[in-house]
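Hi F.,

I've been meaning to write this up properly since the lab meeting, where we talked about keeping a consistent format for the predictions we share between groups. The idea is simple: the sequence comes first, exactly as it goes in, then the structure tokens exactly as they come out, then a line or two of notes. No screenshots and no reformatting. I'm using this chain as the first example so we have something concrete to point to.
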Amino acid sequence: MIWAVTIAIIVFLFIYPKQTGILLFVLLSGIGIVALIDYLVSSQKEKEQKLVSVAVSYDPISCSKDSPLSFKIKNGSKKIVNKVSWNIIVTAKGSSSNIVDYESFPNYQGEYSTGPHSESSTPYSTNKNLTPGELFSVCYKAPLIREELPPQSVIWKVSNKYSEFQ
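Output, unedited:
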């Protein structure tokens, strides 16, 4: 189909060069303006996403032994956040390999885990509305890890964070 449009444009360029040139200029300018607007909107959304932060720490004292992961969520944006979703990566100190057993999530995580998970999924979430500048803390269960390590030799990191704005 694209070849037919290309041939038609070439034919019109030879028959009506001035009119076809003006039409192509207007068409390409319109496409350029739409692409620029799309880029600016997506750039703004990406900036807003970066302004919402989630930090994780292993804290069975502030939380509980059943749900020892403490998540601190801060809305640094100027918009109200309706929902924040994220995942975690766990590595042993001195290693870069993720040791989370994602296959354990559906059975082990219970109420906030609904299906199979992987390193690219977002099994943790909160539906708490966060006003601009608000800090919210929540505790969740820790995932099973593939190695038996003491908590002080494990590094917890947040990954795949995604925020939904009002």
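Notes:
The first strand starts at residue 52 and ends at 58.
The chain has a mean pLDDT of 83.

If this format works for you, I'll send the rest the same way.

G.
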